[in-house]
């Protein structure tokens, strides 16, 4: 069992580590849903750990949508594609990044962030 310890002594790093452990346990339990993979990817994205974030976004994108009632629709649409595009951009892989940005824009053509990001290519 994961033991957190005294709540007064929690650090951001400790909470982040606990979150990563929880997401990995969730992935082990339900490997065919994108949600935990994307949450894990977002942790690395927020820390600008682009290679790790890319890895988890790619795994998530590879999971097909099912009729499971609790699937978050956004996770099967533009969101992971747009996030992956940013990771690839910062990894210096702009051509590949643009491909994913365009895919995200196809799914959400009015997204101002995506439209604005086109100027950087």
Write a short abstract of this structure:
With 121 residues, the protein is mostly helical.
What attributes characterize this protein structure?
121 residues, mainly alpha, Serine Threonine Protein Phosphatase 5, Tetratricopeptide repeat, 6 helices, 62% helix
Summed over residues and divided by their number, the pLDDT gives a mean of: 92
CATH architecture: Alpha Horseshoe
Main beta sheet, described? Answer: none
The CATH topology corresponds to Serine Threonine Protein Phosphatase 5, Tetratricopeptide repeat
CATH superfamily: Tetratricopeptide repeat domain
* Helix-residue proportion: 55-70%
Give me the strand/helix succession: HHHHHH
CATH class assignment: Mainly Alpha
Measure the end-to-end span.
47 Å
DSSP, total strands: 0
Gross geometry? globular
Query: Which regions contain 5 or more consecutive residues with pLDDT less than 50?
Result: none
Assess the beta-strand content as a share of residues.
Answer: under 5%
Task: Round the Cα radius of gyration to an integer and report it.
Answer: 16 Å
What's the tally of helices? 6
How many domains? 1
Task: Kindly name the structural category.
Answer: mainly alpha
Describe the structure.
The radius of gyration is 16 Å and the shape is globular. 62% of the residues lie in helices and 0% in strands. Helix 3 (50-61) packs antiparallel against helix 4 (78-90). It has helices at 12-29, 35-46, 50-61, 78-90, 94-107, 112-117. It is built from six helices and no strands. The protein has 121 residues and is mainly α. The longest helix has 18 residues, at 12-29. The protein has one domain: Tetratricopeptide repeat domain (Serine Threonine Protein Phosphatase 5, Tetratricopeptide repeat).
């Amino acid at each position: 069992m994961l033991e957190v310890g005294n709540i007064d002594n929690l650090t951001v790093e400790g909470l982040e580590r606990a979150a990563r452990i929880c997401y990995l346990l969730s992935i082990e339990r339900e490997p065919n849903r994108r949600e935990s993979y994307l949450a894990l990817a977002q942790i690395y994205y927020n820390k600008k750990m682009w290679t790790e974030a890319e890895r988890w976004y790619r795994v998530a994108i590879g999971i097909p949508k099912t009729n499971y009632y609790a699937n978050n629709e956004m996770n099967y649409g533009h969101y992971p594609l747009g996030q992956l595009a940013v990771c690839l951009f910062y990894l210096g892989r702009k051509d590949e990044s643009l491909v994913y940005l365009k895919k995200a824009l196809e799914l959400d053509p009015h997204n101002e962030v995506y439209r604005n990001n086109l100027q950087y290519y």
